[in-house]
Structure formats: C-alpha cells, structure tokens
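Following up on my earlier thread - several people asked me to post the actual chain instead of describing it. Fair enough. Here it is, all 427 residues.
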Amino acid sequence: MQKAVLVGVTGGNDPGFEKSMNEMLYLAEADDMEVVQTFTQGSAAVNPGTFIGEGKIEEIRAVLERDKEIGTVLFNDALSPQQMKNLIDRLDRNVLDRTGLILQIFSRRAGTREARAQVEYANLQYMLPRLAGLHKELGRQGGGSGAMSNKGAGETKIELDRRKIEHRCTMLRRELETVDRERETQRGRRQRSGIPLVSLVGYTNAGKSTILNGCLDLYGGDEEKKVFEENMLFATLDTTVRRICPDGGRRPFLLSDTVGFISNLPTTLVKAFRSTLEEVKYADILLIVSDVSDPEYREDLRITVQTLKEIGAGSVPRIYIFNKCDLAGIGPSADVTVTGIGPEDGHITMSAKNTNDIGRLIDLIEEKINRGRVLCEMLIPYTDGGTLSKLKASSDIEILEYEESGVRIRGHLRREDAERYKKYRME
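Reply from S.P.:
Thanks for posting it. Predicted structure:
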C-alpha cells in the first residue's frame, strides 16, 4: 500500500468533522493507501492560495522530507484548481482532495460500459480546470513555426489537452445518452411485465450487496448471479438487478443494487451518475439500508433521505432496514426509533448474514408489494381473452388450470381490477 498523509481543516466546533476525517481514512484504504499521519488545522477561513496556513505547510514538508516513501497528500475538503497547483509546487507530492480520491476509487471499480463512461466523464470534468497543476510539462508549447509545424502551432499543450478533453466529453455524453435510451426501453418492458421493482439504497458499506446475496442464497439463486461484497467503501458501483422468486406462491420481484451514498458526494459524480441514481424513482419500493452498528447511522440515514429527495425519489414507498444488528449488540426484535419514519413506512432490524432475518425481510416486502391489492381466484371464459391479457399486463397472476369453460387463475389484483371483473371471481 502506498503511504499517504491526511490533512483536514475544521471551522471550530464542527460535529461532522471527525466523521468526515474517518471516512477519508476508509476511502484511502479502499484505494490501497495507508495514512501514516494526520494533520488538522483549526481555521475560521481557509487560505485562498494554499487552503492551509504557511506553518502547516512547513510542518507537512518536514514529515515528507523525513519519509520519502510518502507519495500522496490527501485533503478532506475540495481544493480549487489554483490551491491544488500551489500545493503540488510547495509539497512536491501528488495532491488529492476528497473529490479526486473518490473519483480515483470509482475509476478502479467501474465494471460495466455505462459505469466506466460515467466515471470517465466525471473525471474529465474534474480535470479540465486543473490541467495547469497536474503536470509541470503542460506549460510547454505544443507546436513550432515554419512549413513543418503541426496544426495548432503556437498553442500551449494545456490548450491542446483542453480541446482533447472537451471532445472526449462530447463523445461520452452521446454514449451515455444512448445508454439512457436503452434503459428507458428496458424500464418500459419491465413495467409492462407487471413485475415489481425493489431498489436497495443507502450509505456506502451499509450492507446492500450482502442483502441481495442473502436473498439469492435463500431462494436458490445461481452462485454466478451474486455480486461482489466487501467491508469497504464503494465496493459496488455497477447497477445490478436480480429476479427473486420467493416460495409459497408469493409474487416474484426484481431486486436492484447500485452505488452507495456518502457525505459530500462529488458534484461531478452526482451529475454523471444521475441517470443511474434516478432509476430509483421508478421503483415500486425502496429498501433504505442503514448500518445500525455505526454510531453516526442517523446522520448517514439523513444524508440518504436527502439525496433521494434531490433525485426525485422522495415519495416512493419505503422500508427502512437497520442492518448489522449483530455488530451493534442488539437483537432483531429491537425497536430502533428514528425521526422521520412515518406510520406507512415499514422497518426492520436485522443482520444480512442471518437467513431468518432475510426471510423476515422478504415477508415485509411481500406485504408492502401487495398492499392495496386483493388476492383473487378467477375463472376467465375462453371467449374473453382480452380480460386475461389485461390482467397479465397489470398483475402478477398464476394460471392454475385450463378448464372446460375457461382459464382458472390466481393472483394479487389491483382493487379496481378485482371490482371490475368480480363476475369472474370464484368464491
């Protein structure tokens, strides 16, 4: 692991400062960095040129002189392009702010074509105003003069690189627009199928992927369909959708898992991943996962709920999952109280590693999915095939038998459908 030092500036009695610094330690670990020393500075106003004061710069320089293996200086806050350039010049080391570090992790973890394009686009948007500080050689001229000069002679290398980045951003935007259209087609197909979509959302490393894998384990999912899970921040970036088929004649549903949230998620990433994040708007149920063993889980939950509101998913029905109760030292029957959970919202305290708890969660999802629906058994005459087609499109029904007079079906129907076709109901 590469050695690094971490720098943070607190504006006085900031209750979130310690949590934010701890997150940076975990982010560094996720990027294979070992933070060997932490520097903090209390300041009401940051230095506009170098973010930190002259004395703190000299303190950091002294440590870097003693240990030449330290290759990176991490900053807990966002640095302006000029501040980053000045710090690179003064410290003679690679400098990464919070945004740059998260982008670096995302670059390494992106697996699908869409995720790679989103991350590359965010990276280029981040790099564009910082070209002058990234490489000292960027100030050299990109072309000469005379008949043998290349096109763009006299332009600086920075200007040439900027032009290349802007061209690449245009190409990536077109690629992402194509992916958006493909997703819209898939969404329409899913909605026509009538299969409910349940989306896992929450703070990074809260256990979303473990819950998805637990559902697959319980209901005979193929081992190859499992997603990567690890005790680290942003272990999963790519959106994954799996079909869960509970036993006992219960309705199957699609369960999706996507990138987790974090405080101060870089704006460039939010913009690039907006189309992916906005998929949760079209979910039938949100499973909002919190790590109840984290002392700051209430703040994590607040950030998650706020992010959902920002992307337009604030009104989607939800189930709050207080995960990792075993690590918190509380039982699954413990009643975790959090401000903001309404009477219409479901909630469960559980451990994603416990099969019984996964079963309880599936029961809760089943109850939520079928809320407002009526379990009916009907006999649809062969002469009314249109009704059968409509029920297939709007409900998840099971064909029980082809009888002499018609098709016998059973399923959870919308109340209006149950009332409209009550003449076909079997008592």
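Residues 136-154 have pLDDT under 50 and may be disordered. That should answer part of your original question.
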